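Input chain follows. Return structure tokens only.
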Amino acid sequence: MAAVNSKDAVTANEAAAITRVPLKQVHRIVDAGLLGDRVLLKSGKRLIDANALVSLSVVYRTADVLSPEARRMVACTAGEPERRQVRIDDLVVVDLASAAAEVKKGFGKLERAVALVRTDPKAMGGAPCIRGTRIPVHDIAEMLVNGDAPEKVLAAYPRLKREQLELARIYAEAYPRRGRPPGKAPWRGVEPKARGAAKLSDLPAA
């Protein structure tokens, strides 16, 4: 997988990983038309012009500060390369330079996350693993999402470094595990139709 760069169009998941905007909010901002024609639909996936990520970031972070009209104005102007700020009125100025710097930093982290991972069809069933190990990157990310402290994860996988944990989380967010996400088992919380005990001798032979 090639490393992303600022000239690429990115998926909604990559946009969320780069900007730290929650994925649901990425889709809501796109649905609201705030990114205009900088979003394409290809093979059923939304592709967002990388130059629109500053707009995405600013629109999300000003949701409780600016009116919808002001946010739309910011979204339209934030992608201009030379624009460093947007003045809403005499008291409110939106700093685009810092938002652009954060997006650039996010791109760098995603590039390092992609470089961290190696996929080998002959190892671990082809699951993406942390380079130089047989540790599936999504397993590490899920441990962190489920609330395991980094120290606990590092104790379980002493070959890993703390920075690799963060990069694993970013990679998994940008490139989710393939297949249907695990859901609640249909039998959980359902009362059994019958109860009883059986002897081992009563069970059919294997």
